[in-house]
Structures are given as C-alpha cells and as structure tokens.
Amino acid sequence: MFRNIQGPFREFGFAAGCLYATHRVLQGISARWHLHVYELMVQPITDRALLPRKFGAQLDIREVRAGDAEIALMPVRPDVMASRLRQNATCLGAFRRGELIGYMWFCRREYEEDEVRCVYVLEAERESVFDFDFYLFPEHRMGLAFVALWNGANEFLHRRGVRYTFSRLDRFNVASRRAHRHLGWKVVGRAIFLQLGRVEVMLATLAPYASVSVSRARRVRLRLRPDVLHA
Amino acid sequence: MRNELVVLTDYVRSESGYEGPLDPESDLLDAKILDSFSIVQLAMFVQERFGVELEAEDLTRANLATLSNIVALIDRRKAGVGG
Questions:
Q1: Superfamily of segment(s) A32-230
Q2: For domain B3-78, which architecture applies?
Q3: Rounded to an integer, what distance in angstroms lies between the CA atom of residue A63 and that of residue A65?
Q4: Strands (E), chain A
Q5: pLDDT mean over A100-110
Q6: What's the predicted TM-score (pTM) here?
Q7: Which residues on chain A are in Cβ contact (under 8 Å) with B57?
Q8: How far off is chain A from B36, nearest CA to CA, in Å?
Q9: What ipTM was reported for this prediction?
Q10: Cβ–Cβ of B32/A178 closer than 8 Å?
Q11: What is the distance of C-alpha B36 from the center of its chain?
Q12: Three-state SS for A150?
C-alpha cells in the first residue's frame, strides 16, 4: 500500500503528486467532484516531415465532415460532439484501406473546453489552432498511426498558414506528455479546476488567474500566446 | 552477443536515456522505453546502420517490440524475405 502511495509522488514530483492524491480522494467521495490539472501547451507547425513518405504511404489523412459516417464511430458523448460541430471544429481522420483508425480535432480562434467551464482564446488567431481529442483506436496504438496523423496534420495546417497549435494536456497523462515531447511543445501556462458539484473553482498561471463559477453559462476565458516558442 | 544486438542496445540506451537492464526479449513498448516516435527513428537507424530497406508494413509491434525481434527482422530483410 505504501508503494501505491509513493508511486504518484515518484512519477509526478511532490506538488503534482499531492494534486494527484487529492484528485483520487475527490473521485472516491463523489462522482461529481473532480480536480483537473492541466498544462497548456503550444507546439510549432512546420513543413518538416515527421515521417519518411514511404512509411506513411499506407495511411490516408483526410478531413472528416459533419455528415460523414465516421463521426458515429468516434467514442465521444453526443452532447460533446454537438458542441464540437457547433463550434465548427475541424476533424482530421487517419484511414487505412478506407477504415478510420484514428482522428484529431482542432478549432480556430477559440475552443470551448468540454471538461470544465473554460474557453481557450488564441491571441495569434490567423496563425493558430487549438487541437484536442487526439485518438487512436486501441488496436492501432504503438504503430505508425500516431506519427502519421501528426505528420498529416502538420501538412494540412501548414498549407493553410497555421504555425502554432495549442492544446491542453492532463498533467497525469504520462503517455501523452512523452509523445508530445517529440513534437517540440512548450508550456504556455498551467490551470487547476476544482469541481464540487455545480461549483467550479479555477486557479491558473494565466490571466485572470482565478475564477469561481456556479453557472454553466459562465466560462472563464484563458488567452493563449505562442511567444514561449520564440523565447 | 551478436553485433547487431550490441549496436541496437547502445542505440536504445542513448536515445531513450534508459539505464536499467535491457534483455533482448523485453518488450520495449510495454516498458515504455520506446514509443511511436521512437519506432520511426529506430527504423531509420536500422536502415542506415545495417543497410537494409524497410517498408511501412515492417513497422509493426511484432517486429519492433523487442531487440531480438528487430535482429530477426534485419536478418529477414538481408535475406530478402518479406514481413
């Protein structure tokens, strides 16, 4: 049992380990209590290929549109999907022999978070997107699909003048953090959201730094800038 | 130990920073020593270092998860055998 307690502290460090322990305790108390610990990241979109062409040749990376049958294959709650479509989010799918094996989404200008009451606002709006829900179907993980999808996304976005993509990573998702490291990301800010039923409290390293919300209609707006990539 | 195994062990250690024991039969993906990006880099290293031509279908978990499987893949490609 002591090892179970030690593990998160060894993996995440003392401060994040404490947050992880709090998150687990809250989950144990109520299904409506959560602690979300996010890192807000930016990574460059360049025309540098991440994958030699011959390795990616078997995969087709293309846009999935609102009426396409593939939308129904995605493990996304209907209300969350409706929110994405309402926001005009773009979906890129990775296909192998016509079968959808993974996808990612992104928004321009701003993105309404689906876990907490927050809107990420992109300051360099012409050159930026916010990417979210990068998903590979389980049987296609640990192969080429991850790199191929990012490679296709880079090409797709770079052709459209996009130079930065922002995202939020769960602080405790070690696999995602490792994978993104290869993509050249940097941290632009951190945010913690404590949800206790209807009440939501945010603390962040970005303006407005703190907020309290008791209404679904009230969302805090966090402005994201890519400057850290040029520092 | 075969030369390919020594070279691959050194490569995996230098790329991943992993300092623990590296058994040729250990699953490098399960152990989180390699990830999806590392697989692509490893494939390019294998092509260059051992003079073999790999194809997209070679880059599977079965072929690349362990050092001994990678050596077997190199052997098959040198012999001109597919998959």
A1: Gcn5-related N-acetyltransferase (GNAT) (3.40.630.30)
A2: Orthogonal Bundle (1.10)
A3: 6
A4: 33-44, 59-64, 90-96, 99-108, 110-112, 118-122, 128-136, 164-170, 186-196, 199-204, 210-213, 220-224
A5: 96
A6: 0.86
A7: 58
A8: 5
A9: 0.72
A10: yes
A11: 12
A12: helix
